Amino acid sequence: MKISRLTTFIVSGVAGMTMAMAAHAADYTLSVNTALATTDPLYKGLEAFVKNVDERTKGQIKVTLFPNSQLGPDEDVLEQARAGAPVAVIVDGGRLAVFEKEFGILGAPYLAQGYDGIRKVVTSDLFETWVQKLRKASGHQVLSFNWWQGERHLLTKKPITKPADLNGLVLRTPGAPVWTETVKAMGGTPTPMPFSDVYSALQLGTIDGTEAQLPAVIGANLQEVITHITKTGHINLITGLVTSAAWFDSLPKDLQKILREESLKAGDIASYGTRDALASIEQQLKDDGVEVSEVDTTPFKEATQGVYEKLGYSELHKQVDKILNQ
């Protein structure tokens, strides 16, 4: 009888420990959503993030990647994070601007050139004040915002040499005002839709074109449904890894620190990898029959100057310029 009771105690104890471990593991699981394909050079940064977080936390945090928007559109995942779910998403500042306005300027036209320039902004003390404001405003936690995807260009079925050539063309954009106003200022008619719908929309003629960075063109096979890429570089696409503040706050402080540090490191891996891949991607697009054209961007810059004032970013623009010029 004593042995039986001892056995029962041991079995129940093991079961209790197993349940506790399972609960612990669930608390340390993070699902990361991205609209990008696994072939995108930025994805290598995400894979490095998974590996390095696992190593530094000794398996306490398990990160799982969901490419091609498998968890849904970015906006839906942001809402899940806002509700406290253990999810994260690679997202642009325009989508965060609905919660905290300052983030929108990161997607404003011709703000900075290349990764090294925009990195100064997203690692600055000024940017960290936006991070804290976002937490209070929406319950989102930025892990890092140095995930550079390249400069965005015009993708069409006809040659574009100046803003006037966009008159009457319906162009897909993300839904945030900074994107729609930029395309509108350049002369196009913006039509927000999920990036996953762009291929079919171009194929069916629902839209006349879109704008995107070169790696995304390849990732979505858009070279099959466009004929021209005009290198306007109108938006320097910097994105961030954003999760739930409630979930983040539930982690021990040391794990919070690791997540932010490894996200920043992985963002650099992703961004420099993207930069190094751009020339070969452009050549691949040319080999696939797409005409890739350099144009004088001055008329496009002049056409979009008013976007800052229209969206109320004039003063913030001066602060950002000061950082960029340091």
UniProtKB/TrEMBL annotation:
Keyword field contains 4Fe-4S: no
Keywords, in A-Z order: Signal
Gene Ontology biological-process entries: transmembrane transport
CDD domains in the cross-refs: PBP2_TRAP_TM0322_like
Top-level taxon: Bacteria
Gene Ontology CC: outer membrane-bounded periplasmic space
Signal peptide: 1-25
One Pfam family here: DctP
Protein name in UniProt: C4-dicarboxylate ABC transporter
Native source organism of the sequence: Thalassospira mesophila
